[in-house]
Amino acid sequence: MNALARTDYAAWSLSEAVVSDFVRKGAHLFDERLDPRGCADLLAQIRATRRFDESLFVDEAEVQAVLPDPRRPDLLERLEPKLGFVERAPQVVEALWSLLGPDYRILDRQVVCALPAAAIPGWVRRRLHAWPETELAAFVRPEHRDIAFSHGVAFHQDLGSEAERDAGVVTLHVQLHPVSDPDAPLQLLEGSHRLGRSGRPADLKRTGPESWRYRNGSFGEMYLTERSLVGEAGLAALWHACTLHGAQPAAGGEARISLRYRIGRGEAAAAGIDAVNATLPLRQSDQPDFTSF
Length: 293
Prior knowledge:
alpha+beta, Jelly Rolls, 12 strands
């Protein structure tokens, strides 16, 4: 077997694994990490832009006057030359090609930061406790809103207003530094995509330390185990728009900084995501089909 044939076989194997994982789990966790040096370089550039502490926030007296701007600036526009280790990584390109077609499109990319309690003013924490769905951006200074900040995120889907359109969109998550349990890692409810589009908040009940009961109206219910994305710098994961994911408030003392991409299907006649979506109830008239799982 020559070198080209070996490369083709490896690519075919990855493509098959990604589509299979999306059908069964609604997500794919890459075995091969992205370049740790690329992660470290980008992370240093991000950390150099500001302090990740209470200086990020407006004073309490200012909060009504300083509203979030829907035209959110994007730090990654300034750092685009540093993103090749993600966007041109062979395993990422092959996975996206297999799911979305060769002309897939990057729709959105963000630096996301989970802040620990010590970095958030007490008055902000009190408001978040009273109104858990409040976006942290409402309290962040306008010049710092080029990063998406959070302190715990309820389980949710990455769906917009049109299920048929958004089911052709996947999320790519890349960790830029090591993440352990105290760092509020992202948590995936693998298999939750099988019940299709859900309302918000999702109808979830914890049944154990890492297990949940999930109901979605006439689509039925499932018992799921959460998968925490803990690991070294360069850990990368893809998930379906219907896969529930979230994070607990950080218990540790450091901010968790990662990248989040939303990537859309191209115009190819067929793509792996079509085979995935064919098994899902994406409209209220559909019923889940578990025969393939």
